[in-house]
Specification:
The chain folds into 2 domains: 103 residues, Immunoglobulin-like; 229 residues, TolB, C-terminal domain (Neuraminidase). Helices cover 4% and strands 54% of the residues. It has a 5-stranded mixed β-sheet, with no helix packed on it. A 5-stranded mixed β-sheet has the order 10-29-28-27-26. It has a 4-stranded antiparallel β-sheet with strand order 11-32-31-30.
């Protein structure tokens, strides 16, 4: 067994997926020839597509599409070669539009692109331990201007607040209405963005006054889980293997990546933090963090923090959740739901 499959067990609830799940052609005139397809596609392998023509039609040309984006064409029925290096991981939908005898017909197939990156098992060192509120069902954790903010879940007990992490004292808190189950938070351009779980509603607050300025509805049928941001976009997870890219100005979800470790789809991505150009992602029900390539979705590293949970005294402590990077100290703060401790750690290979 590959090492990355062993490491994936640390993270996941994984689903091992074969290549046999394909979308059948839409007609019987032409089909995409998959006889030479490899057992697993990766981004390093080119894709060669051929057309089966059982009725011996006279083919003029074929246009090829991946995920409805035209990627090339051929004269006649020549095979088409396409590089997968820039494709995201996960399912890709192939379509060949065959032009023949003054007519056209589509052939389709679904393939799955897997990661060929072997994740590294990362090391960590605890540099400080702080008290954490054992009544906090932690959903989000983030530093902003040197101050630590936390959001929580559970209906009737959801809020976000600023916390003096050295003492555990609450500096300022905003409670959500009882109908909402709070999720992740992030700061962007003087605003605080917050998600709710299954209510498909997000909130935007003034970052200085904490005053609610706007609510918005998700434009996809998804749940809200973790949040983070870069200089241009906000990213959030939805409890699946997807990490979505959101336009902060419109709150529209414009793209996503799928998180994979080898041939394993990593589901239940939860709290997120962007650190040195990589997503650090909690996986629900696992006391581990996946380090994810932001462009492809490939898991590049795994941080096993199970020993931190073993050191807790709180009997009601649940799963690890909460990642906050302090750019001043270049350290990472982690905690969990109902944990009595928050840990400041450094990470290395």
């Amino acid at each position: 067994m590959k090492n990355y499959n062993f490491l994936a067990v640390i993270l996941l609830g994984i689903t091992l997926i074969g290549c046999g799940d394909t979308k059948k052609g839409e007609n019987s005139l032409f089909t995409i020839d998959d006889s030479a397809f490899p057992a697993h596609f990766t981004q390093k392998e080119p894709l060669t597509i051929g057309i089966l023509n059982p009725n011996s039609k006279e083919i003029d040309s074929v246009a090829y599409f991946i995920n409805d984006l035209r990627v090339g064409s051929t004269k006649g029925a020549k095979d088409f070669r396409f590089e997968l290096i820039d494709q995201k991981l996960g399912y890709q939908y192939l379509k060949a539009t065959v032009y023949f005898e003054g007519d056209s017909s589509d052939a389709t197939k679904r393939i799955e692109v897997f990661s060929d990156i072997e994740p590294k098992l990362l090391k960590y060192k605890v540099v400080n331990t702080f008290v954490h509120d054992t009544t906090a069902f932690t959903e989000g954790l983030e530093f902003h201007d040197g101050r630590l903010f936390e959001s929580t879940g559970q209906k009737g007990d959801s809020y976000f607040r600023e916390v003096d992490y050295k003492t555990g004292k609450v500096v300022k808190q905003v409670d959500l209405d009882k109908e909402y189950f709070g999720e992740g938070i992030t700061f962007f351009n003087g605003k605080i963005y917050q998600l709710s779980w299954q209510e498909k509603t997000g909130f935007i607050y003034d970052a200085n006054t904490f005053k609610l300025e706007k609510t918005f509805k998700y434009d996809k049928d998804i749940e809200g889980w973790g949040m983070t941001h870069d200089d241009k976009y906000i990213y959030h997870s939805d409890g699946t293997e997807k990490i979505w890219k959101m336009d902060p100005a419109t709150q529209k979800l414009i793209d996503y990546i799928n998180v994979y470790s080898g041939t394993s789809k990593i589901k239940a991505i939860n709290e997120l933090e962007l650190i040195d150009g990589k997503f650090y992602a909690n996986v629900w029900q696992k006391d581990a963090i996946a380090v994810v390539n932001t462009a492809s979705g490939a898991v590049e590293g795994i941080l096993n923090l199970a020993d931190l949970r073993k050191s807790l005294k709180a009997k009601n402590a649940e799963v690890l959740n909460g990642i906050a990077y302090n750019p001043i100290t270049k350290t990472i703060f982690v905690t969990g739901k109902y944990w009595d401790k928050m840990f400041e750690i450094t990470v290395s290979e």
